[in-house]
Queue: 3 jobs
Job 1
Amino acid sequence: MKVSELRGDHVFSIPVAGQATGGTADEFVALVAPFNMTITAVKWVPTAAITANGTNYFTLTLRNRGQAGAGTALAAQRSYASGNSSAFVGENMALSATAADLNAAAGDVLTVEKLTTGTGLAMPDGTVQIFARGN
C-alpha cells in the first residue's frame, strides 16, 4: 500500500520563520508534494499575537509553484486587514473557491508566502499545517 492510499487527511506541519520587517515580502518552500493530492484545509499557528490593521497588513498564503517554479495557484490565504490572532492558537486559512487551486501533482512545490500591503505588518514565527488527501 502507498502512503497516498491511506484513508483520511495527511498532515504536513511546516515551520515558518517570522519576518520582523513589516514591509518586506518573503516566500518559503513549504513542501514538495510527495504524491498527487487535494488540499482539504490549511491552518496557521502563530507563536505571538497579531493585531490586524486595515491599512498596513500582511497576507499569508499557500501557493502552488508547480514543478517549474512559475505556478500561481493560490490554495489558501489569511489576511491581517481584519481579525486578530492569538499566540499558539491555530486558525483555518481561507481555502480557494476554485477547486483546481486545491490540487497538487506529485513533485509540485508548495510555498508559504508573506505578501504586504501599505507599510506591511511584522509576522511572527509560526507553523502552517497542510491537510491533504491523496487522489
Job 2
Amino acid sequence: MKKQPIIEIDDSREFYRGTRFRQYGIGLNVKRKDDDYYEYMLTIVPGESDYLLLTCVEGYKSGSPLALVKTEANEMYVTAKSLKRSMGIENVYLLNDE
C-alpha cells in the first residue's frame, strides 16, 4: 500500500466515500513506531448530504467517528482542503492501493 502525505496533496483534490487515510504518532502503547496509527475511512452519514464522516476502521477504536467533513455543494465528495481542516495535516497520509 502506497502512502502519500496529505500536506503534499492539492487542496482542490476530491475524495469520495471509501477513501482511506492513516494518522501516525497518536500515542498508542506499541513496540514499533510504525504500528502507532489509526486508519480512517470516509463514510456516508445516512440521510445527510452536507457531510461525510471519517470513521476509524482499524484498531481498538474501530467504528468510532473522528470528524464530520463538509461536502462540496451537496455533492458526495470532500476536497483535500476540507479534509485537512477536519483531520489536520501532521502525520496524516492518504492510502492508495497502487
Job 3
Amino acid sequence: MKKIVFMVINMNIGGTEKALLNMINEMPKDQYDITVLMLEKYGGFLDAIPKEVKVEYLQDYATYKQLLNRPVKTTVMELIKQGKIVKSIALGCVHTLSKIFINKMFYYNYILKTLPVYKNNYDVAIAYAGPMDFISYFVAKKINAEKKIQWIHFDVTKIGFNKRLCQSLYKKFNKIYVVSNEGKNKLVSKIPSIRGKTEVFNNIVSEKSVLLQSNLGVGFKDNFDGIRILTVGRLSKEKGQDMAIKVLSRLINEGYNVKWYCLGEGAALEAYQKLVTQYNLENHFIFLGADPNPYPYIRRCDIYVQPSRHEGYCITLAEAKCLLKPIVSASFTGANEQIINNETGLVVEGNIEEIYQGVKSLIINPQKRKKFSEGLNNEKALQQKKRVFN
C-alpha cells in the first residue's frame, strides 16, 4: 500500500480543498494510505475528510508563521529591543541578500533552518496548496519521500509569485501538475526549465456526488419569484463580487426583477456589505454565508455567474455545469477550457460592462438560457458516449 501525504494550508470551504476531497474520494482505499497534513486546524471541510484518511497538523508552523508574514523590519527591531544584536544583524543581512538577488530562498533557508524534518516517511509527498511558498519549501526540503509532486491551482501571472524561489524549489519535485492548459503555459513561460516535468491535471468533479447532494437541503429559503442569480466563492477581490454588486445595481435601476445571491465567506465581507449599502441593494444582493453543500442553491438558481478576476481551474464553474445551469463567466484562466462561448455558456471580459451585458442578455432571453442548458446536456451525453466506447 502506497503512503501518500497531501499538504494544504487548512480545510477552508474553497475550490482547492473541494478538489482535494474529490481526488481522495476517487482513490482506492485498499491501495493508498492517505494523510492530509495541514498548517492550521481550521475549515468548514474538516468533517468532510473521509474517516479512513489520517489528519495531521504541523505543530511548529505557528512559531514560523509570524516570521514569514510580518515585515522583516518589525522582527529586526524586536530582536534589538531584546538585546539580540547579532541575530538582528544576521536577519537584516539575509533579507537584504534576498532582495538584491530577488530570491527569497536565502531568507527561507535562514529562518527555517531550525524547522525539523517531518517525522514520517512517504512514497509520495504532494504540495497540494500551490503555489504557496511555505508548503512548497516544506515538501521539498522537510519531508522524506521517494517522489514529490507540486500542484498549481492558480494563475501564476495574477498572484504573488517569486520566480527565483520557485525555480529553486521546483528542481526538487519529480512532477508538477497545473489544473488547466492555460495555467500550465503561463507557468512554463515563467520557468521554462520545468517544461519537461509539467503536466495538466484538471480538478476532479464528481458529477454523481454533485447531483446527489443537490437534492439534499432546500437551498434558497425566500419566496422570491423573479430571476435568481448565484455566485459561489470566497469573498475576496480576486473572486470579483464587487463587480457583481455594481452589475446588479444597473439591473435593478433598469427595473429587472432579480436577486443576486452570494454563497461564501471571506475577508472582504465587511467591505462588500458597505458597497451593498452604498448602492441600496440590501434587499437585492444577499449574502448567504458559507455552506459545505452549495448544490441545492446552484440547482435552484436561474443564472450562475462567475465574475472572478483570476482562477486556475474554477471548480464551482464545473459544478454549475453538472447541474446544467446557464452560465456567465469572466474570461479568467481556464474558462474557455470549460465553456464553449455561446454554446454552453457565455465567456465575457472580466469587467463590469461585459458582465452586465452578459447577465442582461440571459435575463431578457429565456430561450438563450434554455439553449445553454441543452448545450451542457449534449456535452455531457457526448462525454459519456466517449467513455463507453473508450
